[in-house]
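chain below, 234 aa
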Amino acid sequence: MNVTQDLSFISLIANASVLVQLVMLLLLSASVISWTYIFRKMFTIRSARVQTEEFERVFWSGGNLSALYQDALSNRRKAGSGGGALERIFQAGMGEFNKAKASVAARGGAVDNGALLDGARRAMRAAYQREMDALESHLAFLASVGSVSPYVGLFGTVWGIMNAFRGLANVQQATLAAVAPGIAEALIATAIGLFAAIPAVVAYNRYSHDIDRLAIRFESFIEEFSNILQRQAR
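prediction:
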């Protein structure tokens, strides 16, 4: 009964050296933060996908672009940031196109279709970069946790095993019972490191794939919408 109590999970952590406890605390903190980002990013990407599909359905239904632009402006005023990433990209391009066209009409000069399209494309590209930065936020942290946590846990394990064998120097007869608690508490650090790393790696790979698919849809929309604006500018 005493051996079982001494080798319990909580007892091993409580009896570990200060450095190993600090390593465990660091890994647990990284795990909690990474799980927070994992759930937040899951809802963010899911919402972005749904909003993108909804806007594509409305956009390709053949409605009036000016009315769609006014709806996008209304959604932005209501929600503060617009109805979705693709809608904000459309709003940036259409808004720049309308402003440039109105500016040329006010001056009474000839309309340069190339300049109008370049301005709209640059505005959509800038909006695209902002949306991608928002979607990719915190992914670097997940990648860092996934790649570094096993090594941090291994460092705690090595340190704990070193202390366990140093303790054997004061024992005349080394037995498994004498070294087992020290090795067990050291291995907990590796286990916690893997617990922090595996979900972070899985989430990073999954979310990177989902964001890449959204990026392809955004870029395709920019090209297709640019073609539509080109036809309207003629």
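Helices lie at 2-6, 9-15, 18-59, 65-79, 85-107, 113-135, 139-167, 176-233. The longest helix spans residues 176-233.
thats it, cya
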